[in-house]
Amino acid sequence: MEPRFNLMANELGAKIGKRFANVSLAIQQSSLPQTIQDLVMLRASQINGCGFCVDFHSKDAAAAGESAVRLNLVAAWRESTVFTEAERAALAFAEEGTRLADAHLGVSDQTWAQIREHYDDDQTAALVYLVAVINAANRLGVIVRNPGGSYQPGMFADLAN
Length: 161
Fold this sequence. Notes:
CATH topology of the domain at 44-151: AhpD-like
Radius of gyration: 15 Å
Protein name: Carboxymuconolactone decarboxylase-like domain-containing protein
Largest sheet: none
Strand content: under 5%
Shape: globular
CATH superfamily of the domain at 44-151: AhpD-like
Structural class: mainly alpha
CATH architecture of the domain at 44-151: Up-down Bundle
Order of helices and strands: HHHHHHH
Oligomer: single chain
Pfam families: CMD
Number of helices: 7
InterPro entries: AhpD-like, AhpD_core, CMD-like
GO molecular function: peroxiredoxin activity
CATH class of the domain at 44-151: Mainly Alpha
């Protein structure tokens, strides 16, 4: 499968992409644990069917030391025993924030309460932006049909510079 369009090879696409990467960098540099960020990005990408993003986030998480068992169970986190309560809250938040069209009420009060129980204000802000940004990235990948399989961990490290 070939991509329909290379956004980064287009001058305007690259300009917008750099700004997009800077938002992602601010989230990455926040106090929200990287493990939570990786799990949330992987789960949203699975839901949205973005092969490139699933490839990207699973490989980055593995390179950061995440276990294959946990990565393989992200799609079935509710039926798994390998995630902490804080991780489960973040995964529920990611799903509810991603499935807006499926669950028109958005994030439930119960899930929001769990987020606030486990995450401080800065981490909550980062989590809200993370769910929004990964959903936007998934849509970009799906629209231009970026295929999964070719990502190498760290290959976008200098994009935000």
